[in-house]
Write a structure and sequence with these properties.
The chain is of the alpha+beta class and about 400 residues long. The chain has a 5-stranded mixed beta sheet with strand order 5-9-10-11-7. The termini are far apart. The model has no long low-confidence stretch (mean pLDDT about 85).
C-alpha cells in the first residue's frame, strides 16, 4: 500500500500504526475503570499466551491484539465527538484558534482510562491527534436537553399543572421549545430506557421484606399491612395522599432508617417481616447506568440517557425538605413518574412495584428501598406475614445499626 493510501486509511479509521502488543482482560479492567465492554472484546478475541502489559504468560491464550482495543476506542471517539477543523469556525483571538470549546485526544481518553499507564500512553500515541469538539457544537447537547426537560417537568407538575400536564401550550415553555422535551416525552425517555435495558428485578418468597410502623407494638397482619385508604393521608416518595402503597426494605436497618426521625425517640415501633406469596417483578431504578459502557456498540446509544436517569435516581433519593408542606411538593414529580411506570408503560413482565435508592444512602454505602403497588387489601392478599419484633426507638443508636 502506498504512503498516500495508508494516510487516507489511517485518517478514515482514526488511528495510526498500532504497537505490536497483546493485552489481557485483567489489564484492560485495571486501566479502564473496569469497563466491561472492552474486557469482553479482549476475552472474546484472545490469541496470545503472553500479555505485554503485565508480563503474564499462560499455556493457553490470555491476551488479544491491542489493535482491537485501539480500533474500538477510536471508533467511539469519532462517533461521539466532532473535530474543530470540520465543525468549528476559526477564531484568531482565542487561545485554541477555534470559536468554541475544544479537547485533545488525551483529554477525552482521561475520561475512560487511567492516565500514565502503558495502555494510556499507547492509546494517546496511536489514536489520531485531532483537535476535538462536541458533536454539533452549536446545538444543545443531548444530556443538557434531558436535564432542562426534567427541570421544566418538575416546575410544571409541582407549581403549574398537577393533573393536566400532558396537555401543553406555548406558555408552558419559557425558552425556545427546542431546548425541551414535552412532559410526556421526557417520561417516555425514562420508560423506554427501563424497558430497553431490562431494568427489572425478580423477587421470590425467599426474599425477606421489612416494614416498620411506629407508635405501638403491633401484632396483627392488618395493622402492619398497607394502610386503608382513609388512613393514607401523608405524602410519600412514590404515592400521594389517598393512594395506599407498601413501603419496605431488604434490611431491618434500612427500613428503620427510612421511617425514624429524632422526634420519634423513645416511641414504640414494630418491625414486620414479610415475603411475597409468589415470584414477582419490580422495576429496578436503583442504579440506572450500571452496565452501560460508552464502548458497548449495542448500548452506546443509551449512554446519555443512562447518565440522565442516574441523576434522576440520585435526586429521588434526596430527603424531602423538612419545612411544613414541602414534602407534598418535593414528591410530586416522583409520584407522577411512579404512576407513569405503573400505568403508562408496556412492561416485559407484570410488575408489582419498584426498587429505588434509599434516601439514607451515603457516598460510602448504598441502601435499597422498595415500594409495592399494593393497598391494604392487596398487601394482605399478595404478601406472607412472617412475624414481628417490638422495639423502643433510640434514634441515634437504632439508625446506626439495629
Amino acid at each position: 500500500m502506498g504512503t498516500g493510501n495508508l494516510m487516507i486509511e489511517m485518517d478514515e479509521r482514526g488511528y495510526g500504526i498500532p504497537p505490536s502488543k497483546f493485552i489481557c482482560g485483567q489489564c484492560i479492567s485495571d486501566n479502564s475503570y473496569g469497563d466491561y465492554a472492552l474486557v469482553e472484546l479482549v476475552q472474546s478475541n484472545m490469541t496470545s499466551m503472553h500479555c505485554d502489559y503485565c508480563g503474564n504468560t499462560s499455556p493457553f491464550p490470555i491476551a488479544a491484539d491491542i489493535e482491537l482495543v485501539i480500533e474500538r476506542v477510536a471508533l467511539v471517539m469519532m462517533n461521539r465527538y466532532g473535530t474543530a477543523e470540520e465543525d468549528l469556525p476559526r477564531d484568531n483571538e482565542s487561545e485554541s484558534g477555534w470559536f468554541g470549546d475544544t479537547l485533545t485526544t488525551e483529554d477525552i481518553l482521561e475520561k475512560y482510562f487511567e492516565n500514565g499507564t502503558k495502555l494510556f500512553n499507547d492509546l494517546v500515541n496511536t489514536i489520531a491527534d485531532n483537535t476535538w469538539c462536541d458533536k454539533d457544537p452549536f446545538s444543545l447537547p443531548e444530556d443538557h436537553m434531558y436535564k432542562y426537560s426534567w427541570e421544566r417537568f418538575k416546575q410544571l407538575v409541582q407549581h403549574e399543572k398537577r393533573y393536566m400536564f400532558f396537555k401543553s401550550n406555548d406558555s408552558d415553555l419559557d425558552l425556545n421549545e427546542e431546548f425541551y422535551l414535552e412532559p410526556m416525552e421526557i417520561l417516555s425517555v425514562i420508560g423506554n430506557f427501563i424497558r430497553e435495558m431490562g431494568m427489572y428485578k425478580e423477587i421470590t418468597n425467599e426474599d425477606l421484606l421489612y416494614h416498620v410502623r411506629f407508635n405501638d407494638h403491633y401484632t396483627a397482619f392488618k395493622d402492619l399491612a398497607s394502610p386503608p385508604v382513609e388512613f393514607a393521608t401523608q405524602p410519600n416518595r412514590m404515592s400521594p395522599p389517598g393512594i395506599s402503597m407498601f413501603y419496605a426494605a431488604y434490611e431491618k436497618k434500612v427500613a428503620l432508617m427510612e421511617t425514624a426521625s429524632p422526634d420519634l425517640d423513645g416511641k414504640k415501633f414494630t418491625i414486620g417481616r414479610f415475603s411475597t406469596k409468589k415470584s414477582e417483578y419490580l422495576v429496578d431504578i436503583s442504579r440506572a447506568s450500571k452496565g452501560i459502557s460508552v464502548f458497548d456498540l449495542d448500548k452506546a446509544k443509551y449512554y446519555n440517557v443512562a447518565q440522565f436517569v442516574d441523576k434522576y435516581v440520585k435526586e429521588i433519593s434526596k430527603p424531602a425538605r423538612k419545612e411544613a408542606g414541602y414534602s407534598s411538593i418535593d414528591y410530586v414529580s416522583t409520584q407522577v413518574l411512579t404512576e407513569f411506570i405503573r400505568y403508562g408503560m408496556d412492561h416485559d413482565h407484570e410488575i408489582i412495584g419498584m426498587q429505588f435508592r434509599s434516601s439514607k444512602s451515603t457516598p460510602q454505602e448504598d441502601f435499597t428501598s422498595i415500594v409495592l403497588f399494593l393497598d391494604h387489601a392487596g398487601s394482605m392478599e399478595h404478601l406472607n406475614f412472617l412475624g414481628y419484633e417490638h422495639h423502643i426507638c433510640r434514634y441515634m443508636l437504632d439508625t446506626n445499626g439495629l
